[in-house]
Amino acid sequence: MLQSFGFSLYESKVYEALASSGEPLDAAMVVKHSGVPKAKIYEVLNRLVEKGMVLDTISEKKKRYTALPLTSLVEKLTQQFQADVKQLTTSLSHKTVRDDRVWSLKVDASIRAECKQLIQRATRSIRISAWEDDFQAFLPLLEEKEQSGVEVEALIIGQNHTNLSRVHSFVPAKEHKELERFQLIVADQEEMIFAGEEDSGWQAIKTRAQPFVKFFADFFYHDVALSRITQKHFDLLFDDDEIRSMLIRLRY
After folding, report:
1. Which of 50, 103, 232, 241 is the most buried (most CB within 10 A)?
2. How far is 119 from 164, CA to CA, in rounded Å?
3. Residues 152-204: tens digit of each pLDDT
4. Which of 122, 108, 130 is closest to 151 using CA atoms?
5. Contact in structure between 252 and 172 (CB atoms under 8 Å)
6. What is the rounded distance in angstroms from the CA atom of residue 168 to the CA atom of residue 39?
7. Are the C-beta atoms of residues 180 and 201 closer than 8 Å to each other?
8. pTM of the model
9. What residue numbers bound the domain in which 117 lies?
10. In the listed set 40, 67, 94, which residue is the last one of a domain according to the structure?
């Protein structure tokens, strides 16, 4: 009977023997009425007790067993079935396949629109690097996200004219003649867009692939650290020709 509900043959036989008995049975009597081998009877009884299908007690120095009443069994199995269905529904509804493809995108307007959508979707954190004039296009939305509780951290290439809490800025030196314009946004450590100028136009890549997301998140903090170090020790670093040359070869 119980096999259709996922119980083993022996468990089903033991429960039926106990349920059809008018009184509690000890292990020996369960063996007799169920046909379950003596070597297996305690293992099966203990499993049924653990599952709440069988009650046990000590009577006259003997351990005796009785089945959970049929009405209670029906209620138990019904509740368990409903709970399993709910869990399955929840599990399947939240299980989505990550798109790990790397998408390429061209045209400044399209890239900017995608950047704004990425910022809008963020619910936990935003890391953004951009040149000052490009950054201004995202500023109102970034301030709105920060006010809603999203952690926003920005690196601006140029002067800082924002009210954001965590902003780093870097003003390029005269030697930075070939510094390429770029934009980087990492949202929730789950998705990123990196855009740069190429052949007088903008091109971008967009992906949720975690190796890329982690790399560009680390890239963001590399740039932050480098800009902070350069600002703090500018005179010391740029007075040394060798160090200045090395720094110029880096992004900043």
Report:
1. 103
2. 15
3. 999 998 877 888 999 988 776 555 455 678 899 999 999 999 999 877 789 99
4. 122
5. yes
6. 73
7. no
8. 0.57
9. 102-249
10. 94
